Structure formats: structure tokens, C-alpha cells
Amino acid sequence: MKNKDCVFCKIARKETSSEIIKESQNFFAIRDKNPHTEGHTLVIPKKHFVTALDIPNTLGSELLKIIKEVASDLMDKKLGDGFNILQNNLEVAGQVVTHAHFHIIPRKDDDGLKFLVKED
């Protein structure tokens, strides 16, 4: 399935320029356009899937492999002392682009980021 207006589909089809940092048969990685930290990277399926539930189980090991490679590269480059892997599904959960993607966010002490903090 593909979506002709989806920005991630356009990047996958090479219709929009973006520096692809890492690529596998079914996934690619690019830097986030609005990074939370230096090195914030997105891992994106080449096919159009809306949420993680739509990604076939058969792609699971390939997905995990590219996520691990990207995270390892970020750590090797000393962009963080740790990292978060985040994935938002649907608007209520913070998904902005309706094409499944995984955020790898390098973290350092006192970087000021807080995730899933419940407001009282």
C-alpha cells in the first residue's frame, strides 16, 4: 500500500529529497526534521503502514535490526549516554504523520526532556 501524498512515502520513492542515514530492504532511517535532541532519528517502513499494528510480523526482526543499528551508531558517535525508542500510534497518542515510524532519541543527563509525565 502507498499513499501518494504521504511525505514518508515520497521519501521512500525518492520523490522528495532527504538524507537517508541507513537503509534495509523494507526500512530507512532519516534525521527528524524537528529533533528533540541532536541525532534524533526516525526509522520508517518503505511501505505505507499507519500504525505499528499494521506492520507485518514478518518484518519484525528486520525492524529491530535497523533500530539497533541506528541506536548503536548514535551511541558510537557520542550523541547520547542513552536513548529512547518511541512510537506514537494515532493522533490521540501524538502521531503527527500518519505513516508508522519509530523515533530514536539520544539522551544525556539534564537534557530537559520528559516523556509520559502525567499532569496532575
Layout of secondary structure:
Layout: H1 7-12, E1 20-23, E2 27-31, E3 41-45, H2 60-76, E4 82-86, E5 102-107
Antiparallel strand pairs: 1-2, 2-3, 3-5, 4-5
Structure write-up:
- Strands 1-2-3-5-4 form a 5-stranded antiparallel sheet, covered by helices on one side.
- The protein has one domain: 2-Layer Sandwich (HIT family, subunit A), CATH 3.30.428.10.
- With 120 residues, it is of the alpha+beta class.
- The longest helix is centred in the middle third of the chain and has 17 residues, at 60-76.
- The protein is 19% helix and 21% strand.
- The model has no long low-confidence stretch (mean pLDDT 93).
Report the C-alpha radius of gyration, rounded.
14 Å
The strand count comes to: 5
The amount of helix comes to 10-25%
Secondary structure class reads alpha+beta
For the residues shown, what is the average pLDDT? 93
What string gives the helices and strands in order?
Answer: HEEEHEE
**Low-confidence spans:** none
CATH T-level topology? HIT family, subunit A
Can you count the helices?
2
CATH architecture: 2-Layer Sandwich
Largest sheet: 5 strands, antiparallel
What's the number of domains?
1
Classified in CATH, the superfamily is: HIT-like
Strand order of the largest sheet: 1-2-3-5-4
- Strand portion: 15-25%
- N-C termini distance: 41 Å
Spatial shape:
globular
CATH class: Alpha Beta
Could you write a compact summary of the structure shown?
The protein is α+β, with helices and mostly antiparallel strands. It has helices at residues 7-12, 60-76, and strands at 20-23, 27-31, 41-45, 82-86, 102-107. It has one domain: HIT family, subunit A (2-Layer Sandwich), CATH 3.30.428.10.
